[in-house]
Amino acid sequence: LLFHTDRGTQYTSSEMRQFLDHHSLTYSYSKKGYPWDNAVTESSFKYMKKDELDRRVFKTTQEVTLSSFEYIEGFYNPKRPHSANNMLTPNQKEQIYFESL
Asked: Cα–Cα distances in Å, from 40 out to 10, 16, 24, 35, 74?
């Protein structure tokens, strides 16, 4: 499992590194002075919040988990085209990649 983030002090602290090490998580940081490193990920979270999460009131973490899963696997990956993928869905882009191997 990979934990990728910017180089904010909360993420580069020794406490965070210990937490990641304790849970056998690999850490990855964006390049210094390069804010575009996380642009695609931040865009996907923006749309998930706008399209799904901000429209609902959740009572449990299980409801948030299920809603997020249904949004990602039921809509975002199979149906939503992306300009970063030449207007292909993430599933289509992935399929083309694996077929090219």
From this structure: 22, 24, 25, 11, 19
